[in-house]
Amino acid sequence: MFKRSLTSEAFDAVSVEQKRINSTAQIDFAPLDKFLNIYSVPIHLVLTIGLVFVLIYLIFEQAAQAELLVKNDRARISEIQALKTQLLSQPVHAELQNERQPKTQLSILYLGHIQLNHLSKALVELDGEQMLVTPGQVLNLDWQIKELNEQHLLLESKAGQVVKAYRERP
User: What is the distance between the alpha carbons of residues 143 and 153, in angstroms, rounded to a whole number?
Assistant: First the structure.
């Protein structure tokens, strides 16, 4: 369908442009080569000595950092050992006795009651925070609301202790 005709003049023009691009891309390193040939031994010697000093400095710097890390680790280990001996010296049974006794202190105020059809909620203040609660809800991970009505709120702890909170009157 399409015919292309290439003539020798068009081909020669492209090849001449490529030769010009290639010839301008070369950089003349003659002065640098001449300098390195004259001073090659002293420059290489100075560069080698400088490189050796840099490597020695880096090795000593890494050794100092490693020594600092070891000191910090030893200090932490001694702190952990001191804590371990302190904890092991305390009697364990005293802590277990404290855990067995449930918290009997519960600061709850029964502020009001809301009844809507079969849904019953109570407004309470627990440790300074007001909230709406329903029967069966657990408070402070220990106390469950067993019953609520207009006059009182009945709470039971996991240990079986029962507390009755009467409604506060304004």
Answer: 12
Which residues make beta-bridge pairs with 113? Answer: 122
The pTM score is: 0.38
Give the best-scoring range by mean pLDDT among 24-28, 74-78, 115-119, 155-159: 74-78
pLDDT score recorded for residue 27: 67
What is d(CA 77, CA 133) in angstroms, rounded to the nearest whole number?
49
The domain locations on the chain are 8-90, 108-166
Topology of domain 108-166 in CATH is: SH3 type barrels. (2.30.30)
Q: Which residues contact 122 (CB under 8 A, 6 or more apart)?
A: 110, 111, 112, 113, 114, 132, 133, 134, 145, 148, 153
Mean pLDDT of 131-142: 87
| Integer CA distances (angstroms), 82 to 49, 78, 93, 95, in order | 50, 6, 21, 20
